[in-house]
Amino acid sequence: MVAAVGRLLRRGLPVTPATADAALLDLRGIVARAADPADEASRTAALDGTLRGLLARFPDTRYASAARALFGLPPAEPGQNLTIRRNLAAEQAGHESHHFRKRVEPKLIEKIAWELLADAERFTRSAMIAPRLAPATGRLPVEADPFAWEVAEHEEQLSRLWSAIYAARAELLAVERLISLQADRKDILRTAVTAAWRWAAARAEAISYTTAFAPDLGSSVDDLVALAGWTPALTSAQASRLTEAATGGASREQFVAALHAETGLGNAWTHGFLARPTSPGNTPDEQNGHLS
Amino acid sequence: MTTTNPALAAALKAASTGDPRRYVITGGPSSGKDDLIEAVHAAGIPCMAEEPGREIYRKHRERLGRHLLKEDRREYSLEVLDAFITEYTGHKGGIRFYNRGIPDGYGWEGFFGLRPAPQLEEATRRYRYDAIFVLDPLDTFEDPDDIVWAKDREIRRVHELIVQGYYDAGYEPVFVAPDSAAARLDFICANLRLPKPGRGT
């Protein structure tokens, strides 16, 4: 990264495709800013804008002007060669040119490389990781701004999605615990139905979230609900039927009523749990397959 | 509250008969933009009253009865663009500040993974502003670990995408460091060689 930033120095800004290193063009912050991330020219423009913004707000005020001059921004002028820019930067920093080149310039380059990495970190989007929570230090009103409204709504949906995934996880764990305890079959089946309801609600939330906020994220609905835990194998039609019954915040009772006639689906779910090798003797009969 | 400096009022009056001068104040949420816009109004400097995107957003939400999906955002974005063009072309002479500008559309579209609309690119070429002031966020997260809410992270992302939009549009924005609204307005006026409202009494 440091070497790639150093190579940009020879020509300075603006960054051109000839001077931009792939390591820089592939940074998440650059890809995210590019109007067309697949296009190298677009990512080059994004790198140029990022560096200009970074240099305009260079965090070390002592060397801010020197850093800008070094890369060809005012007080330097476009087209000046590196030697002229370096001399100007040394003057801005109040150093002799040789000292500046040997001692200060490498540190400025390192600082810019670090800032680019920190910027990339800010652009990391990992929908597969639940948002971290921290104690609120005060009320955080949402600013009257369309961006802020969208961002707040995104976080609302994200929170709903993860609460649904964790609720499903809790019930799936409860089923496995009851099986391990060799609990009463009725208890196991009742909990398995609760797990189906929670799992289906999580799937409905995952569909809602990915449709609205992450159509291009690459995380499928199935990838998201798989994070809740293991579930019996279902066909696509069965998974859709379960999801449909849980959509719209349906209660457990409403969910069970909607699936009352779905004996095959009930069997697929409950047999999946009870027919596992750890409990070979616990095969339910058809009656137990009803979701109830 | 900032008071109108007589020297500033005289400078604004002198400029009012000249060519239009358009200055954009922009930045992501939590940048203190609303407070600064209020200070601009209080100083008697001509300025857009409210960012048109807010009312249009409310209208779209009401019509749809749900949050905006990707396809809705394009429609929203074009309607906001029309409102910004109307604001731009309605100004005929003198100094005027804008609460966001046409290139903010790049940030909005980038935030939602949309490619810039041809209408946005055309408007960006045709309607040029004289200076862009980007308000850096008031909340500074020195340590990335401090950014624990997805919302905070996204707000920072919005801000950087807005900045990139202005670079893409061929501007060199002036960054306004976090400070009080009055101090920021003084900084902006000094940059534009206008008398500082903060010195007016």
UniProtKB/TrEMBL annotation, chain A:
It comes from the Bacteria. It comes from Kibdelosporangium persicum. Residues 270-292 are annotated as: Disordered. This is DUF222 domain-containing protein. Residues 279-292 have a biased composition (Polar residues).
From TrEMBL, chain B:
Pfam families: AAA_28. InterPro entries: NadR/Ttd14_AAA_dom, P-loop_NTPase. Residues 22-184 form the NadR/Ttd14 AAA domain. It comes from the Bacteria. This is ATPase. The lineage of its organism: Bacteria, Bacillati, Actinomycetota, Actinomycetes, Pseudonocardiales.
